[in-house]
Amino acid sequence: MRHRYNDCVDCLSELMGHDSFQVKELALCTLMKFVELEARYPLIKVEWKGTLTFPRELLKVVVDGLLPMDENASLLISRFQEYLEYDDVRYFVTKAVTESIAQVMQKAKERPLPFYQQNVFSLISPMIIPNKESDMVKFMVKQDNWEELKVSKLQAHKHAFEKMWLSFLKHKPTLMIDFLTVAYGIGGAISLLALNGLFVLIHQHNLEYPDFYKKLYNLLDPSIYHVKYRARFFHLLDLFLSSSHLPAYLVAAFVKRLARLALSAPPEALLMLIPFLCNLFRRHPACRLLVHRPSGPEDMSEDPYLMEVEDPSESRALQSCLWEIQALQNHYHPDVAKAAAVLNQSLSEMEDDISGLLELSAYELFDKEVKKKATDVPLEFEQVRGLFGKKNDIFAEHFALA
Questions:
Q1: By residue range, what is the domain housing residue 12?
Q2: pLDDT tens-digit readout, 209-267
Q3: What is the DSSP string of 106-134?
Q4: Helix crossing, 267-283 with 248-261: angle to 10°?
Q5: Does residue 229 share a domain with residue 103?
Q6: Strand, coil or helix: what is 178?
């Protein structure tokens, strides 16, 4: 009887690849009924009480049938979604999918498998993990000593879910191209977060993105100096502008836009930005004329730079100069004024290390100022008497200055 049952399971697994959807559906439902019955009445003898008896191998047969490599199984997968409402079934499906991805991709040697990867995505994308352990109340079969088993622990479910997605994305990073490009075009903080993924695709997977720098240029708005992702954004911006093959007009446009936005930036951002701009001048000497142009505009009304245009090639940045940095040389914060004055001198060949300035906060600046030791400077050699400093001042007779 055991052999006949195994033969029946093999036949049903083959029928999940049948041309008729009705046959596939019947085979799927029958196998899932076997999963439920094997969980209640295990074929393997239990050695001790509390052992998990869920038929994981049988469920893996079902998962493999849902993930063919030669056809789109989205319709059959949608029929399977009702079984994923059971917490125990979903837990073991995540583990089975993780094993399947590792085995299939190892055999495929990373070559594209469009049907398989689409089927995997169709299966795992609707999965939802409960927010609280108390929400895990729907199980196909409860085991003995249920509270002691991993399948009843929310943390175990989260770990299996995360491992499944990471294994999927690790082998198929190019699947994120459409998602990241759309996210990159949304603007704001979402675009900043999408930058990191696009950086990996561009540098490691040869993604071609013709409008990348144009969109990156349009991400520069006053919020970049205030968002909590500022450090990560400027780290990536530094990488994207590091190539010496970038045209001078493009780098000049970024320099001018960053400098213009700096006029309303907080001191902690300016102390990071000014060394950042100095590094750009070191990498791209053709842009140094922005600094060394004595006949350039002195304020915004005379500046030929067009900040409102979206295309950096039409911004006319190379015809301008950095009068904004000259304005920052009169900044109220002495450290900012001192940093801005560096551009009046010839820059060294060695780039400044800005890694320690990316995370600089207003609290750290304030704390630094408080801890400074003040030196006593003589302001008057003769002690002042009276309010107006006159010997016969009427105020001096009634109000003595301490």
A1: 2-171
A2: 777 888 888 888 888 888 777 888 888 888 888 888 889 999 999 999 999 999 999 88
A3: HHHTT---HHHHHHHHHHHTT----SSGG
A4: 170
A5: no
A6: helix
